[in-house]
Write a structure and sequence with these properties.
Layout (H helix, E strand, L loop, with lengths): L2 H31 L5 E6 L2 E7 L4 E6 L5 E7 L2 E7 L5 H4 L10 E3 L4 E6 L16
């Protein structure tokens, strides 16, 4: 190998390292800017009723115009429907949710509770990154 070959190899390595470091820095900045606070989004009859952070434990009662109601609870980062006036109580028997993959739905009262911004918080997603 001649002297110019070593210079060419060094220049290629410096360019490759610069591109690699730039991409890592760019990805790090994007991840910091996209961090979302997980929230429970409650919809009633297709309209957003409220948005509640999962970091704050609370209990909320949803009063509907026809006198029916739903009561949900946020505790330890999970949402549970604890009481409802609907006849079947499917929403009350639904397990607590903490990700967007399994919303709580009360069809008789038209109440839907979903979680947004917590898709990868515990790392046990059933859907891989390609499917997302």
């Amino acid at each position: 190998m001649k002297k110019n070959d070593f210079i060419l190899i060094a220049v290629v390595l410096i360019i490759a390292f610069t591109i690699f470091a730039g991409q890592r820095l760019l990805n790090k900045n994007n991840n910091e800017n996209n961090e979302a606070v997980p929230v429970a989004v409650v919809q009633v009859c297709g309209e957003v009723y409220g948005v509640y952070p999962l970091s704050v434990d609370r209990e909320e009662r949803i009063e509907l115009e026809d006198g029916s109601y739903n009561i949900f609870s946020i505790k330890d980062g999970e949402v549970t429907m604890i009481e409802a006036s609907c006849p079947d109580k499917i929403c009350v028997n639904h397990p607590a949710i903490h990700s967007s993959y399994d919303p709580i739905v009360c069809l008789p009262n038209e109440v839907i509770i979903t979680v947004q911004g917590n898709d990868d918080a515990d790392g046990d997603n059933d859907i891989d990154s390609i499917a997302n």
